Amino acid sequence: MAKTRRKRHTYTTQQRQTILAAANKDGLTAAQVQKKFGVTPVTYYSWRKKSGLSARRGRGTTIARAGGSDITRHVRSEVQTKIRQILPGIVRNEVSQYLDTVFGARRGRRL
Question: How many CA atoms lie within 13 A of 6 on its CB side?
Fold first, then answer.
């Protein structure tokens, strides 16, 4: 049995830009772009990547990617600082609970 060949459609630069602009404006997902324009998700993602529109679409508002803006960097830095402050206490408590479970609540006390 002979293999069937897929029909390849080549899009002009103008068509690509029009599809990307419409998808970006309407916040379409790759599946929605495929239904509306007939462009496969892989092709759509490839176009987006090449055009610099690689942020996710269709899922509502998203937080800017790490390293994107000053506020993002500031918030990330503050969160990391806070985690560094509280993490030792969390680890200490978890280890203590584990040791109490393994050795009983009397660990550290002389019999």
Answer: 4
